[in-house]
Write a structure and sequence with these properties.
eight-stranded parallel barrel, 12 helices, TIM Barrel, alpha/beta
């Protein structure tokens, strides 16, 4: 089954956990939660604005984790935290990962910790029972790609473009070739993210990989005032789009299509 991992900035609104529940109800397979940071180097304008709004509300990591712990019994899908190294290493990766686990978070994405500097964080995450997800980009060389694939846990995050997150008119042409390269060296699911802005993008990306991460287009809706109920509809449309990719790719031909061997 193709996977849908929508993103939500923690603390973006007072009722932000209602969006989590809406995502889950709409068919999300897991949810990526952004822990807001004042200098998000990999994030484009929309996610930066979402982080700024959360921080202006006085949101803290402590508050976000407390909110998650409060709804833990109502969340049945995995939660992945996405943040930056400064926040992880401020109190030490052991403490950080343990606190994530205690709040019900089962995965962690830290895009500014490269694979060759991830030993300490990887050990801390494993000890806490948290999957450390690593990222690969279109320019990642083969040997490094193989190392990322071998050391990632949960899934491999395929960054479809060179640059920051953000909404785009078209799915990057580099998305499918990158997914194929990663799938050639791992059995982990490959989730394509960055620039998945429309349902048709989600279908195409899910066809190439094992699913999609959708962030900026959803956060734009929240910033514009969309309610949890309205986001439920948006995520449901993405769910249908991802499922369409499943219907289009018969199981016995899935590997050939991802590899590009379509004849």
């Amino acid at each position: 089954m193709k996977r849908l991992y929508p993103y939500l900035t923690g603390g973006i609104t007072e009722d932000w956990t209602d969006y989590l529940l809406a995502y889950q109800q709409a068919g999300a397979d897991a949810i990526e939660i952004g822990l807001p940071f004042s200098d998000p180097m990999l994030d484009g304008t929309t996610i930066q604005q979402a982080s700024d709004r959360a921080l202006r509300r006085g949101t803290t990591i402590d508050a976000i984790l407390a909110d998650l712990a409060a709804v833990r019994d109502r969340i049945s899908v995995p939660l992945f935290a996405m943040t930056y190294a400064n926040l992880v290493f401020r109190d030490g990766p052991e403490v950080f990962c343990r606190r994530l686990a205690e709040a019900g978070v089962s995965g962690l994405i830290v895009p500014d910790v490269p694979v060759d500097e991830a030993d300490g964080l990887s050990s801390a995450a494993e000890a806490a029972g948290v999957d450390l997800v690593l990222l690969a980009a279109p320019v990642t060389p083969p040997e490094r790609l193989a190392e990322i694939a071998a050391r990632s846990r949960g899934f491999v995050y395929a960054v479809s473009v060179l640059g920051t997150t953000g909404e785009r008119d078209e799915l990057a042409g580099t998305a499918a070739p990158l997914a194929a390269r990663i799938k050639a060296v791992t059995d982990l699911p490959v989730l394509i993210g960055f620039g998945i802005s429309r349902p048709e993008h989600a279908t195409a990306a899910a066809r190439a990989g094992d699913g999609v991460v959708v962030a900026s287009t959803l956060m734009r809706r929240v910033l514009d005032g969309a309610t949890p109920g309205e986001l439920l509809d948006d995520v449901a449309a993405l769910r249908a789009a991802v499922d369409q990719a499943d219907q289009e790719v018969p199981a016995d031909h899935a590997h050939a299509e991802v590899s590009g061997d379509r004849g």
